[in-house]
Write a structure and sequence with these properties.
The chain is mainly alpha-helical and about 500 residues long. It has a single domain (about 1-300, about 380-465), classed as Serine Threonine Protein Phosphatase 5, Tetratricopeptide repeat (Alpha Horseshoe), CATH 1.25.40.390. It has helices spanning about 1-15, 45-60, 65-75, 90-95, 100-135, 135-160, 195-210, 220-225, 230-240, 245-255, 275-280, 310-315, 345-350, 385-400, 405-420, 430-445, 455-460, 485-490, and strands at about 80, 170-175, 190-195, 290-295, 325-330, 350-355, 360-365, 380-385. It has a two-stranded antiparallel ribbon with strand order 1-5. The chain has a two-stranded antiparallel sheet with strand order 2-3. It is globular, with a radius of gyration of 22 Å.
Length: about 500
Amino acid sequence: MKINYKYLFLAGVGAVTAFSSCRRELLTPVPQTTISDASSFSTPGRISGQLLSLYGVMKNGQFYGGRYVIDMDIRGEDFINQTNNLITGADVWALNPTNSATAVVNLWPQAYATINDCNIFLEGMASTGTAVVGATLAANYIAEAKLVRALSYYSLLQLYARPYADGNGSKPGVPLRLTALKAPGFSDLARSSVAEVYAQILKDLNEAETALPLTYGAGSATNTTRAHRNTAIALKTRVYLSMQQYANVVTEANKIVSATAPFTAATGVPHALQANIATVFTNYTTAESIMSMPNSNTAGDFPGTQNQLAYYYSPPTSLGGVGNGEFSLNDATGIAADATWTTTDARRTNFVLKTGTGSTARSWLVKYKVGGSLNYSDYVPVIRYSEVLLNLAEAKVRVSSTVDAQAVALLNAVRNRSDAATIFTVASFATSTDLINAILKERRIEFLGEGLRNGDLLRLLQTIPAKGTAQAKTPADVGYIWPIPSSELSLNKLAVDN
C-alpha cells in the first residue's frame, strides 16, 4: 500500500501541524500556520485545532463526506445506475469492483488517514496535551478521538470484511492499527479478525461514553456536529445490531429511549423525532440528528467533485433537480415500487421526484437539495434518532420472538410521523417474523440514501438482490464484499485479499 501509507504519513503530519481558527460548528480546520511536532500540543488552542481536524479528515468526500454513504446504498437494490461511469460508482452498483477500482482504493486510505490522525492525537494527549488542557477537558477530547476511530473501523468492516454473522466474527477483518504512523515504513500488519476489530470498536465507544460531555448546550448546533455521550450510545446500538447481539442493542437503546411514546432521550441531548421529516433535511441540527458531517459553501468545506450526495441522486436542473442524475430510484423492484409505501407518505411527497413519461420515466431521490451553485453542501447524516428507535424495535422482537408491543409502538412512531393513515397494532402481525419484515422495510423507506442498506443486507447474510442489469450476489459469491485495495496488498506483505 505504498500510496496509501504515504498518504497516511502526510495526513498524520497534517494533523499535528494544522492550526484551526474556524467556527466550532463547522469542524473544518483550515491550516493557518505550520508548527513543529514538538509544539503541536503546547497550547489549548492548538490542541483544540488537532481535535477538530479529526472530524475534518473523516468528512473528506472520499469517506464520510459522501462516498462511503453513497457506496453503502448503491450496492443495494433500491437504485439504478444511469451513467455507467466507473468514477462515480458504476462498478460498485454492479457489485464487481476490482482491487484497483476507484472506490476501493480511495475509501481505504481516507479511513486509515482518519484512524492514524486519531492515533497521533491520542499519543499527543498522553505525552503533553492532558497537562496543557487539564484532566476534564482532556478526557472529553480523548473520548471524541476514540469515537471517530471507532466509527472509521466500523465503516471499513462494512465494505472490506465478511459480516460478523459469518463465522461469529472469525473471518479476516482489517489491519487493526492502534499506534501512530509518523514516518514511512512499518507497513506489514496482518488483518485482525472481524471479532477483534469489533471488540476494539466497542472498547473505544464504551470508553468514549463515560468521558464525553452530556451536551454542548441546549439547542447548540455542536450537539449534531461533535460527539457527545448519546452519540456513543446510539452508535453502539448500530454496532451491536451488526453483530446480531440483540440483547445489547436493547440495553444501549434503553439508555436514550423512553419506555412509551412519544419516544425521547431523557438524559443528555434531548433527542426526539421531528414532527415533519422534511425539517431534518433543511434544518440539519435538530434534536433528531444525533450526528452529521457538516458542510458549507466555504472553500475546502464541502465534499468536492463527484463525491456529493445531491450530485449522485438528484436529476439535472433540466429535469427539476440540482444534481447529475447518476442514480435514479429502482421503480421496478426497489423500495420505490413497494405499494405499502403510500403515495401520501411525506417521505414520497418530499423526497421523491418523478420525471419523464414512457421509456424516459424515472423517479429520483431529492432528499438532498443543495445544488452545485452552493457546492452540494448538504450535511451528511451519520446517525439519526429514528434509527435508534428502529434498532430497538428490531432487537426487542428478536430477543423475545414475539410480536412485542413496544416494538410496534416504535415502528408506529417512525411510520406515523410521515404516514398518519397507516397505524399498526399487535394484531397487524401474525408472527414475529412479519413484524421484523415490516421493521426492515421501514428502514429502507426511512433511510433511503443515508447509507444503511448494504449494512442491513450483510448483517443478516441476505442475498443482495438483482437490479437493472446487475446480477444478485449471494453471501458465497465474489463481490458480496469488496476486495482489499491493490495498493494495500502491494506494500503490506502480511495482508491477504478477500
